[in-house]
Amino acid sequence: MTTYKLPLPKDFEGKLNNKNTHLITLTNRAGMQIALTDYGARLVSALVPDKNGDLIDVILGFDSIQGYLNAVEPYHGATAGRYCNRIAKGKFSLEGKEYTLAQNNGTNSLHGGIEGFHTRVWDRQVSFNKLVNFYYVSPDGEEGFPGELKTTVTYELTNFNEIIIRFRAISDAPTVLNLTNHAYFNLNGEGNGDVLNHEITIRSEEFLPLDENQIPTGEVFSVEGTAFDFRQPKLLATDINSQEEQIQVASGYDHSFINNQPISEPIAKAFSKETGIELQVFTNEPCIHLYSGNFLSDDEGKSGRKYLRYGGFCFEAQHYPDSPNQLEFPSVRLDPGDVFESEVRYKFTINK
């Protein structure tokens, strides 16, 4: 059995763009431990007790800052922004002006562009070994987005084995904003095979279908009778190779599900029978995005094993993709004087 440990702080000490990088660790009274880095305001590790009381690292990632810089997949555990997910053709209009973004995913702009929030070294403040605040000021025009944006991302580890992530942002000019955390989870343990044996539950009646460029068509589909019906627990493997058009478009799951749950109720769950670990997700965001790690490959993780296809899954709490171009979707506009606030809770329990 793999013995999981947090990475060493010394392996995260570096300098990028004249800013120092660090590893920060938090521990709760239940024995759970997490590690974070100011590079990308990202989650590096989460050591969670399994059904036998052993600590399992359920987050894919790397054991050094160099590992993140060299990674094929750049979003492991990161804060994705200014606009997570996709914006069609790297363009949107606001106040009658068209803005042009980097096309870094085919013709789309993905996760804030080439040098999005995941590439930035954030300022940080640690409070009582319980929470970390990361701060970043994105200048007007960065990656093509208007307005100077001041963003705070707070990670809190509670004594109930919850990781609470809070986003807060203000802008000095009208802009668009969509923030999420891009952690890849494997409840069997990072590097321990794929996640196809995980039971997934998503308490959603509807999802957003995609076109051939993985941009929402603007329609809303019922999950009834489709591969996207997770209203009852279902193994991820069950329909991931379905011949349904929407599965084929994304080579698996890479879709947003409409969230009508209050933040007090979980919108999504995942369970590993192997470890007994269950993950519950709570959020006030209007959708939860399921990504089944369809393009993971080649990166060697903390355990020294490669992260293969389907080696991790993401539950990304966010607004709808391409909302700046689809006015019928919930607004992602942020005006001066307004405050963007969002929260996601990842709660770990044992379900034998």
Your description of this structure?
The chain is globular, with a radius of gyration of 19 Å. Strands 12-13-14-15-28-24-23-18-21 form a nine-stranded antiparallel β-sheet, with no helix packed on it. It has a four-stranded antiparallel β-sheet with strand order 3-4-5-6, with no helix packed on it. With 352 residues, it is mainly β. Strand 5 (42-49) and strand 6 form a beta hairpin. The mean pLDDT is 96. Helices cover 3% and strands 36% of the residues. It is built from two helices and 28 strands. It starts with 13 loop residues before the first strand and ends with a strand.
- Structural class, please? mainly beta
Rg from Cα: 19 Å
**Cross-sheet strand order for the largest sheet:** 12-13-14-15-28-24-23-18-21
The largest pleated sheet is described as: 9 strands, antiparallel
Helix content: under 10%
What is the helix/strand order? EEEEEEHEEEEEEEEEEEEEEEHEEEEEEE
Structural shape: globular
Distance between the termini: 19 Å
Mean residue pLDDT = 96
Secondary structure tally, helices: 2
Q: How much of the polypeptide forms β-strand, as a percent range?
A: 35-45%
Instruction: Kindly state the number of beta strands.
Output: 28
Low-confidence stretches: none
